[in-house]
UniProtKB/TrEMBL annotation:
<dbReference type="InterPro" id="IPR035897">
    <property type="entry name" value="Toll_tir_struct_dom_sf"/>
</dbReference>
<dbReference type="InterPro" id="IPR000157">
    <property type="entry name" value="TIR_dom"/>
</dbReference>
<dbReference type="Pfam" id="PF13676">
    <property type="entry name" value="TIR_2"/>
</dbReference>
<feature type="domain" description="TIR">
    <location>
        <begin position="1"/>
        <end position="148"/>
    </location>
</feature>
<dbReference type="GO" id="GO:0007165">
    <property type="term" value="P:signal transduction"/>
</dbReference>
<protein>
    <recommendedName>
        <fullName>TIR domain-containing protein</fullName>
    </recommendedName>
</protein>
């Protein structure tokens, strides 16, 4: 179940969204981070999958690049102003569900501040943002992870070595005592 939903415009900063997905997935676990192309299997009703992904998350990250606000809809006009715009629908659903919404400004993207936003997503302009700068991406991603952990999200447990169902055992005898070692990390003294 995803804890983090990554929302982005495919004609704005898709590479940044993929980078964020990869880095957060490595830290929190792949299942904890929702990115449409990676989380929705072929043949699935994406409309239901997107909204369900938002509803089950705790945090919505909105990846905002320099073209995000003025991206155009196929029929003309600003995409964000269209009721059927999926980025708008994801953000509106996140606010309806009470998620923490974090704008992630990429590169030189400006803060939304007083930008004209539709009423159902206007609160986005008041959300404290974070920045992802190409020249400081490693630092900015570490800060993003720290901020998400401060919100209560936890790192995935580190994977242990694979055992393939095999157990090894070693015995050592000296004098009247014997030491058995099994599984590589358990010691029994006798």
């Amino acid at each position: 179940m995803p804890q983090i939903f990554v929302s982005y415009r495919s004609d704005d900063e898709p590479t940044a969204a993929v980078l964020v997905h990869r880095e957060l997935g490595a830290h929190f676990g792949a299942e904890a981070v929702f990115l449409d192309g990676a989380a929705i299997p072929p043949g699935t009703d994406y409309t239901r999958a997107l909204l369900e992904g938002v509803r089950t998350a705790k945090v919505l990250l909105v990846v905002i690049g320099p073209r995000w606000l003025e991206a155009r809809a196929p029929g003309g006009g600003r995409a964000l102003d269209q009721p059927g715009d999926w980025v708008r629908a994801e953000i509106a659903e996140a606010f309806r569900c009470g998620l923490t919404v974090i704008p992630l400004l990429v590169g030189a993207a400006a803060r939304l501040g007083s930008a004209p936003l539709p009423a159902d997503v206007a609160a986005l302009a008041r959300c404290q943002d974070l920045r992802l700068r190409p020249e400081d991406a490693e630092y900015d991603l570490r800060r993003l992870v720290a901020e998400l952990e401060a919100l209560g999200l936890r790192a995935a447990p580190a994977a242990g070595p694979e055992r393939n169902g095999q157990v090894s055992m070693r015995a050592t005898a000296t004098g009247h005592s014997r030491v058995y070692q099994a599984g590589g990390n358990q010691v029994i003294n006798e």
